Amino acid sequence: MQWKHINFFFFLQSLQFLLETCKILVVGAGGLGCELLKNLALSGFRQIHVVDMDTIDVSNLNRQFLFRPKDVGRPKAEVAAEFINSRIPDCCVTPYPSWKCMNRKHFRLGIVKMSLLNYEDGEVQQSTVVPFIDGGTEGFKGNARVILPGMTACIECTLELYPPQVSV
């Protein structure tokens, strides 16, 4: 037997349960979001939701590999979901082209992966925080952080560590 640790069998059962029942929300289907969607689906997660208000531009095609030239002008969330769903059996990626399309009061999440360039004040309610993985890029710079309720600093506590947003 390859795996001899006594608790390994129970770990496999727990992992299978998580892969089948955990709902994951990916916020943003850009460069980082495309990579996250692919990795989550290939890891075996089956209930993935993606929110992105943007449409595909020609400039996205060199780094956002879920999109093709024929997709220019279409909603990123919709195209990303179609791409993953067509290639990974039993995976269900549900697209949301805006926050308004989601029924957030009835949407319970297990993990949130966020890939946005900025945060809006009051968007995150601390009472509803679940494990949260945040990442972003700007030019050649990147950042990533994990937020575990009750174990790590909250989102608002670490925002001052990032440079201020500059409007162009």
Write a concise synopsis of the structure shown.
The protein is α/β, with parallel strands linked by helices. The chain has a domain at 1-46 and 58-65 and 75-88 and 98-108. 26% of the residues lie in helices and 20% in strands.
Description:
With 168 residues, the chain is an alpha/beta fold. The protein has a domain at 1-46 and 58-65 and 75-88 and 98-108. It has helices spanning 8-21, 31-43, 76-87, 155-158, and strands at 23-27, 47-51, 92-96, 111-114, 132-138, 141-147. It has a six-stranded mixed beta sheet with strand order 3-2-1-4-5-6. It is globular. Belongs to the ubiquitin-activating E1 family. UBA3 subfamily. Pfam families: ThiF (PF00899). It comes from Aquarana catesbeiana.
Q: What keywords describe this structure?
A:
168 residues, alpha/beta, 4 helices, globular
Q: Describe the largest sheet.
A: 6 strands, mixed
Rg computed from alpha carbons, rounded to a whole number of angstroms: 17 Å
Number of helices: 4
How much of the polypeptide forms β-strand, as a percent range?
15-25%
What is the share of helical residues?
Answer: 25-40%
Number of strands: 6
Order of strands in the sheet with the most strands? 3-2-1-4-5-6
Main structural class: alpha/beta
Write the H/E string, N to C. Answer: HEHEHEEEEH
Cα(first) to Cα(last) distance is 60 Å
Contiguous low-pLDDT stretches (5 residues minimum) are: 115-119
Overall form: globular
Mean of residue pLDDT? 78
